[in-house]
Design a protein that fits this description.
The protein is mainly alpha-helical and 247 residues long. It has two domains: 62 residues, Orthogonal Bundle (Arc Repressor Mutant, subunit A); 176 residues, no CATH class. Helices cover 68% and strands 4% of the residues. Strand 1 and strand 2 form a beta hairpin. Helix 6 runs antiparallel to helix 11 and helix 7 crosses helix 9.
């Protein structure tokens, strides 16, 4: 019951640990709780086992090491965002390119008319709202990501894993889908820099410090989400003003 309550309080949804009794999921859930409260280095495998209600041998059956558990958690975030982004591309960008409402030149989106651009922006806003919901629901893992990125060692560069979402190679599903939709698409360094420091970093920071900010300012979850979306809207509008045009 303690673990269940902690997961609800700190925001853990990515692995749906509350809806499963599977041992592997309980190990991951316990790891999220301990890593977020004590830090990755301070949490011991024996504590994870006790919290998950399993023995240490079972942990090593599912995971090679404690580092493997952390890699799995961080990878789950990247995987979800990548899948959601690819779905958005396939649902909106690909059809709009095919029917002539959108042409991509480099990283510039040229729309056939203002109606097409408005349609795209409205659906992109919905996509970003889902992304915000996901990161806030899984803020305990995001907090771990932020914490470990400030430490030296293997996971010191963990925060830069979000740049995998902007890799310019066919192994990146997002890049592959965009390039398949329009071969003229290409990231440039300005876009990558902006998306990392003025899109991802703010979202990660909000999720990581969500609970402290909410408590200090006596805000509700609805207030926090509204503030997050308004702030994101300002950042996104700046990027769209530069990269979105009606041809």
């Amino acid at each position: 019951m303690y673990l269940t309550n902690r997961l609800v309080e700190t925001g853990v949804d990515v692995l749906r640990v509350l809806n499963k009794e599977d041992a592997r999921e309980r190990i991951l859930g316990a790891s999220i709780d301990l890593f977020s409260r004590k830090g990755f280095a301070a949490a011991r495998v024996s504590e994870i086992a006790d919290c998950a209600g399993v023995n240490k041998a079972l942990i090593y059956y599912y995971f090679k090491s404690k580092e493997d558990i952390l890699d799995t958690l961080l990878g789950s975030i990247i995987s979800h965002v990548s899948s959601a982004s690819t779905e958005f591309i396939d649902t909106y960008i690909v059809p709009m390119v095919k029917d002539g409402r959108l042409d991509i030149v480099g990283d510039r989106f040229e729309f056939s008319d203002s109606e097409a651009m408005g349609y795209f922006q409205a659906n992109m806003a919905k996509h970003y709202e889902k992304l915000v919901d996901y990161l806030l629901q899984n803020r305990a893992i995001v907090r771990i990501l932020m914490s470990e990125s400030l430490r030296s060692g293997k996971h010191g560069s963990s925060l830069f894993r979000v740049m995998e979402l902007m890799d310019k190679n066919p192994g990146n599903p997002i890049y592959r889908s965009l390039h398949a939709a329009d071969e003229d698409f290409e990231y440039n360094e300005d876009t990558v820099f902006f998306k990392f420091f003025f899109s991802w970093i703010p979202l990660i920071s909000i999720a990581a410090y969500y609970d402290e900010y909410k408590e200090k300012n006596l805000l509700s979850d609805e207030n926090m989400k509204e503030l997050t979306l308004r702030s994101l809207e300002i950042l996104v509008k700046g990027a769209q003003d530069r990269h979105f045009v009606v041809s």
